[in-house]
Amino acid sequence: MATLKILIFPDPKLRTVAEPVKEVNDSIIKLTEDMLETMYEGEGIGLAATQVDVHKRIIVIDISNEKNDPIVLINPKINKIINEEIKSYSEGCLSVPGIFEELERPSAVEIIALGIDGKEFTLVAEDILSVVIQHEMDHLEGKMMVDFLSNLKREMIRKKMVKLRASK
Ligand code: NI
Questions:
Q1: Does residue 72 carry a pLDDT above 80?
Q2: How far apart are the C-alpha atoms of 98 and 160, rounded to whole Å?
């Protein structure tokens, strides 16, 4: 396994719309392993392939405290919104390090995706899992959490990230 370089906002590559995975082969499986390692190293709970500059519809998630319950979703789709009740969570993003913002999203969704075995499965995601999946699926559309904020706030974050990048 290897860790991958994470793109940092406002890198324009983060705006790329990801392509569906045609076949879950060894290179896709290797990519999901590297994405998981990268996510764990960054102490994140979710990562989209877009964030490591691979524009395929793949996300990895682990919301467990022990970091031993990885979820891989390939070509994920929201099948239905199970609970339209909007919940607010403080969201972070490995592509916007150190920034946490309260965002509102539906509290329960049903997802259809392929697993690393290439088989389709359904997942009912509630609360934090629902939030993480929606956040990561946004990345696959080239959308980011900063897009939900005011222009002023986004501009402040953009400046902070540019400074952070220059200092590295
Ligand atoms: Ni993110």
A1: yes
A2: 10
Strands 58-61, 46-48: parallel, antiparallel or unpaired by DSSP? antiparallel
* Catalytic residue status for 102: no
Calculate how far, in angstroms, residue 60's C-alpha sits from the geometric centre of ligand 1. 11
Q: What is the largest CA-CA distance in the chain?
A: 44
CA of 105 to the centre of ligand 1 (A): 14
For ligand 1, the distance from its centroid to the CA atom of residue 117, given in whole angstroms, is 25
Q: What is the DSSP string of 40-60?
A: HHTT-SEEEGGGGT--BSEEE
Tell me the pLDDT tens digit for each residue of 110-145. Answer: 999 999 999 999 999 999 999 999 999 999 999 999
Would the pTM of this model clear 0.90, i.e. be above it?
yes
Give the rounded distance of the alpha carbon of 32 from its chain centre. 13
**Tokens (6 digits) for 133:** 């999946």
Around ion ligand 1, residues with a beta carbon closer than 5 Å are: 93
Residue pair 1/70 in contact by the 8 Å Cβ criterion: no
